[in-house]
Design a protein that fits this description.
Layout (H helix, E strand, L loop, with lengths): L2 H15 L3 E7 L8 H11 L4 E4 L10 H12 L4 H12 L7 E5 L1 H5 L3 H11 L3 E4 L8 H10 L2 E2 L1 E3 L5 H10 L4 E4 L12 H12 L6 E4 L5 H10 L2 E4 L1 H12 L4 H17 L1
Parallel strand pairs: 1-2, 1-9, 2-3, 3-4, 4-5, 6-7, 7-8, 8-9
Helix pairs in contact: 2-4, 2-12, 4-6, 6-7, 9-10, 10-12, 11-12
Length: 270
Amino acid sequence: MNNEQRIEKRFSALRQAGRKALIPYISAGDPDPAQTVNVLHALVAGGADLLELGIPFSDPAADGETIQLANERALARGVTFADVLKMIADFRQKDDTTPLIVMGYLNSFERREFSRSVHDLASAGADAVILVDCPVEALPDYRNALNDAGITPILLAAPTTSQERLAAITREAQGFIYYVSLRGVTGKQQAAADAIADEVSQLKTQTDLPVCIGFGIRDGKTAKEMAAIADGAVVGSALVAKLHDSAERNDDLTTTARDFVAEIRQAMDA
């Protein structure tokens, strides 16, 4: 399937089914590089609709302690950009339909040349990127390379985003808009749907793209509340912590991943 089609097709199917998107995030290579691909498949088996895979980076400024430590563990195990490419390609050997979004920081892409990075990601089977430290104003610098590769840039908006910047984001966005539910870094606080419901509702009047909410979503209850006001929920730090704890106990990571997502999926669909 063409890289540019998977996200649109998935959200179209979700709308027809009357369901909201569940998007789990994991850090590539943590807690076990050899298990990352198996965990991705387990997340899909548990009910994930799209997948978000983080590139290990030494200074993930938007991430809280949980994901920072996951990045450090993956880097300590020698996980590189090339390893992430192989993980994606291996995942695509068995799954050609689930959209896969790569989350990372510009430095990781520019170290091996941005255009080469996104081209290689597309060739491996990635559909989109979230460039955490790339403001919408800088996106034109990367637009041609992204378009040439067929990689969709997912843009971030937040309660603190000005109306002027929000207009630019809705104008430039593709795929879906990732709405950051709270101020601060990932995993720091518990998200509250009633605190952002008005802002999300207003945003949805300004774009035809799906709006998915992330940051601070830790369980089925929170995910259900967020999905009620948006088109999907992203769960990151809580899953990363669950996988780390599972590895510490020598539990099966795929069972942990599948069961964690299945519980959230069930809550969202109830």
